[in-house]
């Protein structure tokens, strides 16, 4: 039953109230009316998990979890429940039975009642510790290991690592939070929260022109991404195509604090030189349009490179052959009590088929020379293998346990 219908069914009130003879089994029963089509549904089932090449929604709620059981059958069990529950939530449906006992906690925590599907996607990943704890190291992909340390890393344990992750994205922040909350609740006793992050982009309502979203430094962020509508580009850069991870991908998450107060005192010319792009249009310096090619060798009349060699774009682009798919969100978490400035920045999330061949070389170049490092610092880091997509009737991680 859709969440909107639950509210209506709730309104049936006494007509549907059935008191058990013993008094011990009070049940509110009603007949679920045929599901009305909900708006904004992104299919959960498919060859790939949603939330990777899916158009980014407005809000993110990200949770990194620790596995507290070493029993594989318990893990399989909650992965099966997560599968069913995530599928229902992405259709905007309430979780659990239509009839609920007044003597038990409700199956659904209820805060998303009345809200539609909101394009919810729930994406699941497993970290290196997952394989170690479950004695599955023979299945642990070579790609899935902790990242090396990079220059200027200032990682904190409280923002790093995790055995499992849940990335919930939705156009409504309450729908995204509801998804993570209920999934964690279902696996209670088997998983524990390690760290979480709520984050946002511009809202689509306000963005009538569907422009590339801007980060908290005011620059368009995502322009250089590979084309998510191209199967060959996604096969080249994102989807794993062999072994149990076929149809999966690797995710890198970095919690990057941005010193917005310092940035706000920086001249526009310097800001543009830092990114190697114009702020207004998003075009590479010296070009007109956002999607004009990045030519790192293009020179001005004096023979100087138009896109500075130490700019973020020049270094991240390199020779343009290795690409990652970035799907980051901004965060603003009150203040950094040590400095009294905003604790705000980017929850950088990238997907790639090889962390060692794609993310690490790019991040090494950035960490060593990027002008952007004057204005940012990496506080958290985690890597996950995002599981292959699930077919109807199957469950998350099926190919791993097969
Ligand atoms: C707070 C941190 C960061 C900010 C604010 C930021 C912002 C940007 C901006 C504004 C662009 C230019 C527009 C675009 O192509 O999307 C860009 C490009 C890019 N960034 Fe970042 N970025 C950050 C961190 C990172 C990190 C950690 C990586 C790690 C590998 C990275 C990789 C890239 C790549 C691959 C490109 C595209 C380059 C190209 O081929 O043109 N960024 N970033």
TrEMBL record:
Cofactor: binding details: Binds 1 heme b (iron(II)-protoporphyrin IX) group non-covalently per subunit.
Residue ranges occupied by any Dyp-type peroxidase N-terminal domain in the UniProt entry: 49-200
GO BP terms, alphabetized: iron import into cell
Source superkingdom: Bacteria
EC number: 1.11.1.-
Membrane-spanning residues: none
Stretch list, region Disordered: 204-230
Single Gene Ontology MF annotation: peroxidase activity
Assigned protein family: Belongs to the DyP-type peroxidase family.
NCBIfam families: Dyp_perox_fam (TIGR01413), tat_substr_1 (TIGR01412)
Protein name: Deferrochelatase
Organism: Domibacillus antri
